[in-house]
Amino acid sequence: MLIRVNGKELDVAAVTLESLLRELDYTEAMVATAVNQTFVRRDQRSATPLRTGDQVEILVPRQGG
Amino acid sequence: MSEDKDARPFAVYGTTLVSRLFIGTAQYPSPSVLSDALCASGAEVVTVSLRRESGASRAGEHFWTLIREQGLRVLPNTAGCRTVKEAVTTAQMAREVFETSWIKLEVIGEDDTLQPDVFGLVEAAGILSREGFQVFPYTTDDLVVAEKLLAAGCEVLMPWAAPIGSGRGLNNPYALRSLRGHFPDIPLIVDAGIGTPSHAVAAMEMGYDAILLNTAIAKAGDPVAMARAFALGVEAGRLAYLSQPMEPRDMAAPSTPMSGLAFRDTA
Question: What is the pTM of this model?
Fold first, then answer.
């Protein structure tokens, strides 16, 4: 299934947001997620299905001003 | 300390702070310089952001570990967001990751000046305040916008001095002074455009409660020394404000007593 993750098109096997994080090796990372510009809480990831064309953001802490 | 307000400790959203210098964490030459500069600044609050991880370096994790080790309070930002939706979603994501309801709300309206889109800012501030966020709005020095931000639920205002990263200092001292005069009891933090400690001193002498800056320290030749210089500047400005500076005069007035001056006839 083709989706966009952090702005890049990816062909993934994952069917939920949680399985996508596993597939991309983010299991241990401290990340925040959004699908199609809507925030998805950590405890909602397993219940959040992914569909072709979805735009997923996986963000991490970074320097800021 | 003629007013009760001035005798009270500095507090934002119920959190009392000793340092009146908020520091950004971006653009430092290295993590160790950032760490040393944070120590030298004495800041208790640092701004952070959320970004896509670039590559497999796990740079985000390393950065976050460094900040946590310093034991500082973080103020996540929505830097770069251009719409209300982007800003609100970023704030929601930041609250989960950083485990704080504080959010430095930026809704950028224009590229050359990075001027806030104040219409989007007020709308986003209302949404986030209703969701329980404690919003620190990065805004212009427009007094009417400031009123609307307060009505939207903000309990602190962060007007710019000059465009982000410009280092131009207080572009419109009159407007900043007007804001201070109009909102005597609202915590006001000058955010953006500060270039040198003298700019920070000037804002603090006006009675501003605190200064938020990043580039002026991070891009200095010696960021650690500059961090210390800003800490001293902010403290000096605050003390000067509390000390009630003298009024300027148009004409000279001798400071050395005239009585007893030699070579003069006395009456």
Answer: 0.93
CATH of domain A2-59: 3.10.20.30
Q: Are the Cβ atoms of B50 and A32 closer than 8 angstroms?
A: yes
**Residue B240 and residue B219: Cα distance in Å, rounded?**
27
Residues of B in Cβ contact (< 8 Å) with A7: 52
pLDDT tens track for B234-247? 999 999 999 999 99
CB-CB under 8 Å, A59 with B93: yes
Domain ranges of chain A: 2-59
Catalytic residues of B: 104
C-beta atoms of B50 and A62 within 8 A: yes
Q: pLDDT value at position B57?
A: 66
What is the crossing angle of helices B84-98 and B118-130, to 10°?
40
**Residues in CB range of B128: below 8 A, 6 or more apart:** B88, B91, B103, B105, B135, B153
